[in-house]
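Handoff note, outgoing to incoming analyst
You'll be picking up this chain. Sequence as last confirmed:
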Amino acid sequence: MIPIRKANQPVNKGFFAIIERYWLVILGLILLIPVLFRYLKDSNTKSEVNEVEEQIKLNNVVNLSPVTQLEALSKIEPNQAYHNWARSIAHHLGTLYLNQGNWYDFANPKSMTENDQEAYKLLAQITNTGQKKILSELYFTLTARNLSTDVTSLLDKEFLIKLKLFR
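Most recent structure output, in case you need it:
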């Protein structure tokens, strides 16, 4: 005898029954998961950018006072020779005395100290990546700028070709 199907009992059981019953949820998940991943990735990138901006603001506050500036530099590297080295590089690249991105920076005569020959001599003394890392951190603390970016954009090409660590 053939069993009689009850009204609330599904015709097919198993995998296809689940797909038939929850097809809308499955389709929603398939479409929603990539959007969620993209959103989470964007929010992570935004938080990293915000952290860098906060660090730049902190560096600007640190640079207002010579005492706090010296403390911040000493946390990175206690050796004063590195501090002077980073200051000299910033001075000869013309970035030490820049105001922080104001439109009137060009009118500041202290910022017109760019001397590529002296900057090259100082940068040529960097012999390994450890020194470059320390000087980059000190330079960032002094100027709130990236040393590698400034070297590639501000230094003349004839000197830039000779620097192996900044290519």
